[in-house]
Amino acid sequence: MSKTSSGTLYRGREGMWSWVGHRVTGVVIFLFLLVHVLDTALVRVDASAYDAVIATYKNPLMALGETALVAAILFHAFNGLRLILVDFWKQGTKYQRQLLWGVIGVWVVVFAGFAIRHLSLAFGGH
Amino acid sequence: MSAEIAEPRSQRLDPKYVRGPKSRGNFEMLAWLFMRLSGVVLVILIFGHLIANLLTGEGVNGLSFGFVAGKWADPVWQFWDLALLWLSMLHGTNGVRTIINDYAEKHATRAWLKGLLYVATIFIIVLGSLVIFTFDPCIVNSPLPQC
């Protein structure tokens, strides 16, 4: 491992940070998934118990949490597709940095669209 | 006089360097391939899930027991959610397995963490599948008019 801050292709650069981001978002999504299956399982126990738990997803603080979760999901999804291109497309390793900037660009656009719609629904009504 | 030479870590070795029948077959390659294949399918399944549940109609405010019952009256959504459950759990479990292998250095720690992970995975997959297959719209406190 290089101890200087220059001279490596990977360490501290786009490749490493996208790998860190992929791991962190992956763990966050997995932990939510465990909770989400458990809360959905309440539909098999008692309809009003399910509705009571789902009501917690509708408060504004949770709406912000959901927005952050979807931000993680969108990054993991688009960066995952980039990983597939890096592995299977002949030019993938050559353009992995440009692909990451593409991922970030698409992520910004899609996330903005989601956040505007979700937050206006969550804060807007009822 | 003999020097200690560490076991090579690469899986693809010239046959003359292979020591003993230690290979795990091609499990790791299949796990690697599964992550890519399930990943593509999961992008479609999760985007559909988010659009149907959070972006259309009333969004998060429209979620309720009645909403779930309406979706699962359609076998397409039952299959959609079942595929989402299985693929996301297996994809996530393999991801966490990789992370445990990377960071837990003691053999016993790795074994315990992975054991715990696999128990949680089996529990969640079995529970989720049972919920989808045995769903009863007329359960206790059901608000549906036909009950």
UniProtKB/TrEMBL annotation, chain A:
One Pfam short name: Sdh_cyt
Compartment(s): Membrane
Cofactor requirement: heme
Principal subcellular localisation of the protein: membrane
Transmembrane segments: 20-38, 67-86, 98-116
Record keywords: Heme, Iron, Membrane, Metal-binding, Transmembrane, Transmembrane helix
InterPro entries: SdhC_prok (IPR039023), SQR/QFR_C/D (IPR034804), Succ_DH_cytb556 (IPR014314), SuccDH_FuR_B_TM-su (IPR000701)
SUPFAM superfamilies: Fumarate reductase respiratory complex transmembrane subunits (SSF81343)
Membership in a protein family: Belongs to the cytochrome b560 family.
Protein name: Succinate dehydrogenase, cytochrome b556 subunit
Annotated source species: Glutamicibacter ardleyensis
Phylogenetic placement of the source organism: Bacteria, Bacillati, Actinomycetota, Actinomycetes, Micrococcales
From TrEMBL, chain B:
Keyword RNA-binding: no
Transmembrane regions: 29-55, 75-94, 115-135
InterPro entries per the UniProt record, alphabetical: SQR/QFR_C/D, SuccDH_FuR_B_TM-su
Entry annotated with the keyword Transmembrane: yes
Keywords, sorted A to Z: Heme, Iron, Membrane, Metal-binding, Transmembrane, Transmembrane helix
Domain of life (superkingdom): Bacteria
CDD domains registered for this protein in UniProt: SQR_TypeA_SdhD_like (cd03500)
Location in or out of the cell: Membrane
Full protein name: Succinate dehydrogenase
Species this protein is from: Glutamicibacter ardleyensis
